[in-house]
Design brief:
The protein is mainly α. Helix content is 74%, strand content 0%. It is built from 13 helices and no strands. It has helices spanning 2-19, 21-38, 40-43, 74-109, 112-127, 130-141, 148-156, 161-174, 178-185, 190-226, 237-247, 257-285, 287-291. Helix 4 (74-109) packs antiparallel against helix 5, helix 4 packs across helix 7 (148-156) and helix 9 (178-185) packs across helix 10 (190-226). The chain is elongated, with a radius of gyration of 23 Å.
Length: 293
C-alpha cells in the first residue's frame, strides 16, 4: 500500500514537474542554492581576515569571484551567506503559507461573527503596504537581536493575507459539496471535515503558493539586511551589497565591478529560480492553464 501511494505521488506530482521545462529549470536552480547553503560551508572554508594587499583582485582560480575592498574572498562569503539567505527565505515562505492557510480555512468554513472578524483581519493586512510596514516593524525590533525564526515571522506577517483570501474562497466553494455534507450528516468531527475533506484537496494549491511566496520572501529578507534592519550577518548577501555600494564604494571604481556583479548575480538567479518553479508548478496543477496549452 505504501509503495502504491509513493508510486501515485510520483506520477501525479513529481513527474509532471520534471516534464515541465520551467519547473525543471527552476527546481535545478533552487536545488543548486540549497546544496550551496547546506553542503557548501562544509567544503568551502571562510576566512574573513582583511588583506589589503589583495584588495579588489579579479576572478581567478584562487578567488573564483575575486576579492572585495578588504581583500576577502567573495566566493567564500557568497557560499556561507547562502545559508542565512535560504533559511530565512524558506522559513518566511513556510510561515506565510501556514498562517494564510489556517486563517483562510477558518474564514471560509466559519460563519457569523467569527467569519466576519477573520475576514476583517485579512482585509486589514491586504490594504496595508507590505514593505513600508515591514520596515517600520523591523525598525522597532532592530535592537532586540532577533534570530532567523523571529525575522522570518516578521516577514511572513506581510505575505500571508493574499493566500488567506484565495483559500477562503476555495473553502467556501468546497464546503457545499456533497462529500462535506455527507460528513456532517454522519456527525464526523470538525477536524476530520477540515483536514480530510477540505484541506486535503487544497494541498497542490497550497504548494503552488509556497513556491510563489519564495520570491517575495527573498526580496523582503535581502531588503531588510541591505537597510541594516535585521540581525547583522557579514556574509548575508544584503549586507554584502550594502558594503559594496556604500562602504567600499565599488560602484565608483572599475576595479570593484566584479564585487557588485557576483552579489547581484546570485540574488537574481535565486529569485529567477523561484519564479520559474512557481510558473511551472502553476502550469502543471492549474487546470485552466493546462487547458490553454
Amino acid at each position: 500500500m505504501r509503495k502504491e501511494r509513493l508510486k501515485n505521488f510520483y506520477y501525479d506530482y513529481v513527474q509532471p514537474l520534471l516534464v515541465n521545462k520551467k519547473s525543471l529549470i527552476g527546481l535545478l536552480i533552487l536545488t543548486f542554492f540549497i546544496l550551496m547553503a547546506t553542503i557548501g560551508p562544509l567544503i568551502v572554508p571562510l576566512d574573513m581576515t582583511s588583506n589589503f594587499a589583495e584588495r579588489y583582485q579579479k576572478p581567478s582560480l584562487k578567488h573564483p569571484f575575486g576579492t572585495d575592498y578588504f581583500g576577502v574572498d567573495i566566493f567564500q562569503q557568497i557560499v556561507h551567506g547562502s545559508r542565512s539567505v535560504i533559511s530565512l527565505t524558506m522559513l518566511a515562505s513556510f510561515f506565510a503559507v501556514l498562517i494564510g492557510t489556517v486563517i483562510g480555512v477558518a474564514r471560509g468554513y466559519l460563519e457569523g461573527v467569527t467569519g466576519r472578524i477573520a475576514d476583517a483581519i485579512i482585509m486589514v493586512f491586504l490594504v496595508i503596504p507590505s514593505f513600508p510596514a515591514l520596515l517600520i516593524l523591523a525598525a522597532v525590533f532592530m535592537n532586540y537581536n532577533l534570530n532567523v525564526v523571529e525575522i522570518a515571522l516578521l516577514v511572513a506577517i506581510w505575505l500571508w493575507a493574499p493566500l488567506a483570501k484565495q483559500i477562503s474562497a476555495q473553502v467556501l466553494s468546497l464546503k457545499s459539496k456533497e462529500f462535506v455534507e455527507a460528513s456532517k450528516m454522519l456527525n464526523m468531527p470538525l477536524r476530520y471535515i477540515l483536514f480530510s475533506d477540505i484541506v486535503k484537496l487544497l494541498i497542490p494549491y497550497i504548494f503552488i503558493n509556497f513556491v510563489m511566496q519564495l520570491k517575495g520572501a527573498m526580496e523582503f529578507s535581502v531588503g531588510l539586511m541591505f537597510l541594516g534592519l535585521a540581525k547583522f550577518d557579514p556574509t548575508h548577501w544584503g549586507i554584502m551589497l550594502n558594503y559594496a555600494l556604500y562602504q567600499a564604494g565599488a560602484l565608483y571604481t572599475a576595479k570593484g565591478f566584479h564585487y557588485i556583479f557576483f552579489i547581484i548575480l546570485n540574488i537574481v538567479l535565486l529569485i529567477y529560480g523561484g519564479i520559474l518553479l512557481s510558473q511551472g508548478v502553476e502550469e502543471v496543477f492549474n487546470p485552466r492553464l493546462r487547458g490553454n496549452e
